Amino acid sequence: MDELLIKKIIAGDSGSFEKLVSRYQKKIFAFVYRMVESREDAGDLTQEVFLQVFRSLNTFRGDAKLNTWLYRIASNKTLDFLRKNKKARLVTFDSEDYQGEPSLTCSPENNPEQIVLKEEKMRRLRRMIAGLPDRYRLALVLYHYQELSYQQIADALEIPVKTVATRLYRAKLILRETLRGDTDAMP
Amino acid sequence: MQCREWKKKIPHYLAGELPGDECAAFKNHLIACRDCREELDSFREVDFLIDAACVDVPEIDLTRRIMKQVKAEKSCPESRGKRTVAVLQDLVTAAAAALILFWFSGPALSGGEFPVDADRVIKVSDTVGGAFQSYVDFSASTANKLSASMKQIGPIEMKGDE
Fold it and tell me: A171, A174, B1, B84: which is deepest, by most CB within 10 A?
């Protein structure tokens, strides 16, 4: 289906490019938002991704899937952005920029105190995830939140599957150890 | 395989990405190894927490915004060409500046004066323009000042030199 779309775009059908954007923009925005943690920056970067796609569709090799290719461009742009904005990256999902709803809702098992404690734990965990090295976080976001397989991540990042596994293992190891330290430090 | 090696494969196993024979071998190992079972449980918990920490993404539709940009780019594709030419011009200017500074650095190193009159420079960089000329003037006079102040400094003695 994507192949046909690409052929039409190359032939000059702008309606087909709009279809492509409409089909993938939410996915790419979600990925970039989870990486850069800002709605505005994620919007700008998503736009850049699709502009780059538009400019280089002629060079698109059919050996990669469009989905993978989009993630490749988005990953490169995101990592580039994160590198350039290293100093400004103290803001995390705790900030007012975070638009998400609380992940826990009231239920008989969750009294208000428990909800507050769990929410606090989630906030700390999000901070920990945000503090992971970019390469590890990238693999984690792609696997856990964008639901890509190891092979798809490997194709998108142009790395061996084994490297994907290693990055995920290390990311989880860091999180586990930090969580353990965090729990020990709690009163 | 040692426990250390198996432990590295736990996230792989939890993701269902371990090949069949390896997966069966790991399951067998788990029956006998309490340490690996505990490690597996701890990674299961981390996986659960990572999933629970997923943030909600704001609802946003960028299609119109992106298409507007695409149409703008389509209507004036030469703007990209102009950008490339501008970058090339900058590179050529930088290369010319580096060459001229290199050319003038000879007298500075030998303690001589810089030819501050920029007539020769103007001939070389005719197309680059006045901004470049003033840059060279500024560089030459700055280097002259630096050269003069260097002459005032006596020989430097290092600690421990006899």
Answer: A171
Selecting from A30, A46, A176 the residue whose C-beta is nearest the C-beta of B42 gives A176
What does the block give as tokens for B41?
A: 């449980």
| Domain enclosing residue A48, as ranges | 1-91
Give the rounded percent of residues in chain A with a pLDDT score beyond 90: 54
Closest partner CB to A125 (pick from B49, B63, B73) = B49
> Both A87 and A1 in a single domain?
yes
CATH number, domain with residue A6: 1.10.1740.10
CATH of the domain at A165: 1.10.10.10
Q: What tens digit of pLDDT does each residue of B5-41 get?
A: 888 888 888 888 888 899 999 999 999 899 999 999 9
**Residue among A95, A56, A96, A91 at smallest CA distance from A73:** A56
Asked, for residue A120, whether it belongs to a domain, the answer is yes
What is the ipTM for the molecules in this complex?
Answer: 0.80
Are residues B70 and A34, on separate chains, in Cβ contact within 8 Å?
no
Q: Distance between CA A70 and CA A75 in Å, rounded?
A: 8
| Together in a domain, A174 and A121 | yes
Per-residue pLDDT reduced to its tens digit, A59-95: 777 667 888 999 999 999 999 999 988 755 554 544 4
CA–CA distance, A54 with B71 (Å, rounded to integer): 10
Q: Is residue A98 part of a domain?
A: no
